[in-house]
Specification:
32% of the residues lie in helices and 21% in strands. The protein contains 13 helices and 16 strands. The protein starts with a helix and ends in a 17-residue tail after the last helix. Pfam families: GFO_IDH_MocA, GFO_IDH_MocA_C2.
């Protein structure tokens, strides 16, 4: 990547106006970019959960053709293909193996909505195949994958959008600009909130692989374990082999906004996490409740993060969102598209706004323009927002406060914690040392 793009990306991460400009500045598209009708052919990888939103989101764009659906569970895949035809009247191509999608030269871009453990490898392979990439959050499943994903984007110069869709919200862009402009004074703390309803999932034990599922392909780069309905198709989120708990699920939106709003573009030096399972005696491995603290001593800033699974109060009406604290007031973020501010000791209501955006359109606009810098959720957010969640999970798993070196991206004097920064991949589903 040339130096100009490097600088513009760093500025983007620290300045909300970068995102606003990406939505408002006109650009010129070469007429030959995607043929006579300028249609971008997209393949959606992983169509059981979040992938359904990807299908509908890209289908709604006039210059996009959802050309292929891909999933290692053929039962789910054919169900989704039938739904697609019923809704659109069109027959969509189906593939179980994403490598066949990458071999298809007619596919311009892939949208990755697989389980977390596939995200990094799927994105890197896509870049190597010359595809642009929209990848769901968390972009990485392990900390060190984020750096590899940045390297792949820079080497192959592909458009990569991280699925932190609040970056495309006009209200969130405005909110971050207020933080930059000093509306609430010196902003010293961000609080991330993930209060989700997460019930008992039981423990279904080991069973036969169901018909239609290629379990080897579903497992991919992860360690092969005996099949269990505890994993497939949603509850993999709560197992370290595939997911990252709720801080690495819903929480990536909030870790991203914490860092964006505070204006920090590096990792904290001090990390503390505590929590556990207090409600359900079920198959989940990740904590139901998790409280994490991230300290930036040089910047004099702090991030607090709270995951709660069940009955709870809200914080000024926010249960999924963020709160920013400043010397002159505070700001409450509710969901992805609404903020309120409260100023002074008497909490006088300040500016507020509710407005969304289209993260899929932002990605396609960048693809058509051939300009990676146009995306609102650039590849750097994969490493930063996902990485913050990974650091909190590692502190929880080792059971102690940790000191981290942001320059070396290693823990200080802690080989056990360092061992959790990466994973051992299962051949042939391995991320190469050099992408």
């Amino acid at each position: 990547m040339d130096e100009v793009n490097q600088v513009s990306r760093r500025k983007f991460l620290k300045n909300s106006t970068g995102a606003a400009l990406a939505l408002s500045v006109p650009y010129f598209v070469p007429q030959s970019a995607f043929g006579a009708n300028d249609r971008v052919r997209v393949a959606v990888l992983g169509v059981n959960g979040r992938g359904k939103n990807h299908i509908s989101g890209f289908s709604a764009l006039k210059n996009v053709e959802v050309a292929t659906l891909c999933d290692p569970d053929n039962t789910v895949l054919q169900t989704r293909a039938k739904e697609f035809k019923d809704k659109t009247g069109k027959t969509v191509k189906t593939e179980m193996d994403l490598r066949k999608v990458y071999d298809d030269k007619s596919i311009d871009a892939v949208s990755i909505a697989t389980p977390n453990h596939w995200h990094a490898l799927a994105m890197i392979w896509a870049c190597q195949a010359g595809k642009d990439v929209y990848v769901e959050k968390p972009g990485s499943h392990h900390f060190e994958e984020g750096r590899k994903m940045i390297e792949a984007q820079q080497k192959y110069k592909r458009v990569v959008q991280h699925g932190v869709q609040l970056r495309s919200s006009a209200a969130m862009q405005e909110a971050v600009k207020h933080l930059r402009d000093g509306l609430i004074g010196k902003v010293y703390m961000a609080r991330g909130l993930v209060y989700k309803w997460r019930p008992d999932i039981g423990d279904k034990g080991v069973s036969k692989v169901p018909a239609g599922l290629d379990y080897d392909l579903w497992t991919g780069p992860a360690e092969m374990k005996p099949f269990s309905e505890n994993y497939v198709h949603y509850n993999w989120h709560w197992h370290w082999n595939y997911g990252n708990g709720d801080i690495g699920n819903q929480g990536i939106h909030e870790t991203d906004l914490c860092m964006w709003g505070l204006g920090v573009d590096t990792f904290p030096e001090k990390i503390t996490s505590a929590g556990g399972k207090f409600l359900w005696d079920d198959a989940k491995e990740t904590p139901e409740l998790l409280s994490s603290t991230y300290i930036y001593p040089k910047e004099k800033k702090i991030i607090e993060f709270e995951v709660r699974p069940w009955m709870t109060n809200l914080e000024d009406g926010a249960g999924i969102g963020n709160i920013f604290y400043g010397s002159e007031g505070y700001m409450v973020i509710k969901g992805y598209d609404y903020y309120e501010t409260f100023l002074g000791r008497d909490r006088k209501p300040g500016p507020s706004r509710k407005a969304g955006g289209d993260h899929y359109k932002n990605f396609i606009d960048a693809v058509v323009a051939g300009d990676p810098s146009m995306v609102n959720g650039p590849v750097e957010t994969i490493h930063l927002s996902s990485g913050l969640a990974h650091l909190g999970n590692i502190a929880y798993r080792v059971g102690r406060s940790l000191t981290f070196d942001p320059a070396k991206e290693k823990f200080v004097g802690d080989t056990e914690a360092d061992g959790l920064l990466a994973r051992k991949y299962r051949n042939p589903f391995s991320i190469p040392d050099k992408v």
